[in-house]
């Protein structure tokens, strides 16, 4: 099939590459000329396992093309997918200007019947708004062309996006017409083998499904972070509690890891946007508000442990920070807990020495050059000359350090483990003080 993707961010680029991989003719459109130029040179703007090879192979095979020209994109696709960003605007609601700009582009250039598929995360009712926007452009041109709009939210995890796209847990299609469902079923057939993954529903339910999924996952994390804060005070270890509750299949082992709060481009903005939608409809979303509030506070947790250990005197101290990305296997630092930690440390007069396996360029772009920031090229280098070590992102490379060597390198041998990846007894046996998240004993060890 001929498919056009509007937007070459995570969702658009991954979806476009995967659809080309299974034999479709794919055109990717983006208004960012620099980005399209890079893609046309074979450079991938994001770090996503498997993506670069897939983009290269499919470009070489002529199945994947990039352009800034909306008209070319509209002319190319029998299926037109919207995969542009919906960043939060000042009041927390999703900014639809990019989505509606694509809808206008489609309406302006459409010449043949097409199915418009919205993959961007959008408030309930946006499918209808996209439909109206396209219809208004067609009316302005005084033409009648058959088109349909469906909601087809994505559930890609950064770092696993290619896998999630090729082998999804579910494919949600929110459509008003059987014809649209049939067309998308054909498009997704290669990703829907062995058992049925397609769930069809009306567009409004599909739009809410996306928010409900992310809000539920964010709720699990904030709930566990709250339990961790209670565990810390009552002298319990949240890691034991996590195993104890996760073994109940109704709760499950996934997504109940306490830590330094959730970050990334989805959870923070989607929880806020859903809360905003609820309010607009006269409902006060108490759980969503609490999820958000707990997360904000949790992002300060590591700083508070560090401040506690040093008796509030951080001026002149140097803290090594391992991990900047909001989670492993990505270079994405949007809403990353590391940013809150660095900010608080700087405000307190401390210096930081940071290392991340993938996010160093991103850190350079975000922070620029500053005297209180050393961008180091290895985990070891970050620790050299530092007083203490804080682990913020649980990259595999950080899981088994040589604790004895760490004790020798750190001026004040102490580890602040923001992801509970170490065994406190092992760390302490090597002669370092240990603080984790929600591990009652850690406040005593300082
Ligand atoms: C998320 C959803 O998982 C995905 O389905 C949706 O489409 C987009 O948003 P992503 O933002 O890529 O994906 O990251 P995810 O792996 O879900 O992690 C989000 C954050 O939660 C990270 O900061 C992670 O460190 C944190 N997290 C996750 C925890 O703190 N504890 C956990 O148990 C799990």
TrEMBL record:
It catalyses: UDP-alpha-D-glucose + 2 NAD(+) + H2O = UDP-alpha-D-glucuronate + 2 NADH + 3 H(+). It comes from the Bacteria. GO terms for biological process: polysaccharide biosynthetic process; UDP-glucuronate biosynthetic process. Substrate binds at residues 155-158, 210, 255-259, 263, 327. The keyword Ubl conjugation does not apply. One of its GO terms (molecular function) is UDP-glucose 6-dehydrogenase activity. InterPro entries: 6-PGluconate_DH-like_C_sf, NAD(P)-bd_dom_sf, UDP-Glc/GDP-Man, UDP-Glc/GDP-Man_DH_C, UDP-Glc/GDP-Man_DH_C_sf, UDP-Glc/GDP-Man_DH_dimer, UDP-Glc/GDP-Man_DH_N, UDPglc_DH_bac. Residues 320-424 form the UDP-glucose/GDP-mannose dehydrogenase C-terminal domain. NAD(+) binds at residues 30, 35, 86, 121, 158, 269, 334. It is an enzyme of class 1 (oxidoreductase). Pfam families: UDPG_MGDP_dh (PF00984), UDPG_MGDP_dh_C (PF03720), UDPG_MGDP_dh_N (PF03721). Its EC number is 1.1.1.22. Gene3D superfamilies: Cytochrome c1, transmembrane anchor, C-terminal, NAD(P)-binding Rossmann-like Domain. Keywords: NAD, Oxidoreductase. Catalyzes the conversion of UDP-glucose into UDP-glucuronate, one of the precursors of teichuronic acid. This is UDP-glucose 6-dehydrogenase. It comes from Rehaibacterium terrae. The lineage of its organism: Bacteria, Pseudomonadati, Pseudomonadota, Gammaproteobacteria, Lysobacterales.
